[in-house]
Fold:
Amino acid sequence: MSTWLSQLSEISPFSAWIFSFVEFEIPLALAMLISVAIYWIWFFSPALYLFEYIDKKLSADMQMRIGPKESGSFGFLQHLANRIKWFTKEDLVSGGLGTSWGPVLSVFCLFVAMSALPTSEEWVVSNVDNSLLLVVLGLFFTRYFLYWAAFSTKEISEISSFRLLGQNAYYLLPVFLSVSAAAIVCGTDNLVEIVRFQGGMPWNWIVLHNPGTFVSAIGLFWSIHLWISRAPFDFTENAVDREHGYKQAYSSHWLGVFHFIEYGALYLGMALIVVLYLGAGRTPFSLEYFGRASSIIQFLIFFLKTLALTLLSIWLRWSLPQLKADQIFKFSWKFLVPLNLAGLMMSALWMSWHMGKGFWWFHG
Amino acid sequence: MADGMISLVSRIYRDLKKSLSATFPYLMGSSEMYREATEEYPDRVSARMPEDLPTRYRGFLANDINVCSGCRYCADVCPNECINIETEPGPERNVSWVSVFDVDHSKCMFCGLCVEVCPTNSLTHTREYQGSVYKLEDLVFSFGKDWATKEMKEQWLKDQAASDAKLDELAIYERSPLGAALKKSKSKDKP
Structure:
């Protein structure tokens, strides 16, 4: 491996994987830009697209209707048609207000979180030492900058911006508590190390390492639903007067941006659970035979697991009634925080008692 | 506090199980109760829809043009002026040739007044109601006898004039005392 490639693989293993197929050398920053674009276009975007399609069809199935069926042979191109529609509609701006930087910064933070999340052992666009913190903060700021989005339009959606800020009061603590359990078990903040710590079979995943992580995994699942304001916790958007909350004054491509933020954040949240607790992409057998294509196989396995979690999320959305604000606070502070705290403490106690080994079935 | 928390956890678990098991059959089931309730119009519509129509359902209008007398009652009574009628002298005497009878269904409100006043009962309602077209002009239904050419109409006028002349002749020469006298004098003049 040339020095340029080894330099590149230190900061971005995914770029090194992409550029190991070519022979020339380009500046490192340019290589990383190109690899981010490739990662987004070829891997993240189709995953989101497929998630979109399955979401629509599955929701329709549960609601005794059919879902998209006209565009594409069985409605497969419906999301593409939606995207075209978003870009070709008129962008109505009320009261002389210009573009709001809020959604743009949200998307940027989402990209930061996306690039720090490993989808296989080799595929992480930016391998920083505390990538767990980067992903969590990236997702947090994604949600946070939406407050700016609502505030700048100065209409009734301003109220929902304050609700968004108020959301900070109930989702932060459960999230940080539940991701810490996995970090404690692996002893590192680096998500790639956490992926390598786990094995292929379900009993080698961190979720079954000790009872604490099992509880924390469930807690993280609920915390992410609270975080993304997904039903049943979407009280910022569900009332008639709130009218989609912060999205009210936006039209055309901004709807696409908000849609991407919401679904992308959900997908990334579920991906975080898969990476931390469910053994992202690891296989029980060795993948040396496939060489460089082993990453693709790992990515597929990771994608299937994330998809399963998102399907569960869709199922929950249509099964549970929406909670009121005070019920959400109660759920967060009286159920989630104790649950995640118990999980964290159990993991910590287990680790110190058993000298860092898991259950008898965990080989790592 | 611990038992309050345990009861909270068990309540949450119980409610979750109840909600999820309520939607699960709709996710997995394919029996009649859990299948989709939508009809895919117009691809797969349930066959019972035409029978569901009431007996005196007022659908699109249809005119039996061979019975229609061209009296224009329907056009006069129509509140929206949907019906456009043009008549001409036809091949038979005292029978109109309805060359244009256009019903503009884009204006029609299906009130049924035109059908009520039709003296010959040629104008009726059908039970058709599906009127999705690509151009608005496709909703104008024409029933008129527009296949008569100019030569045919001129021929008819000539035929009418000829038969009129014949009848006139018949009327004057055959059926009045003066005509009998004229006929005698005419035949006396002829060589």
Q: What stands out?
A: Helices of chain B lie at 2-28, 73-77, 113-117, 150-175, 177-189.
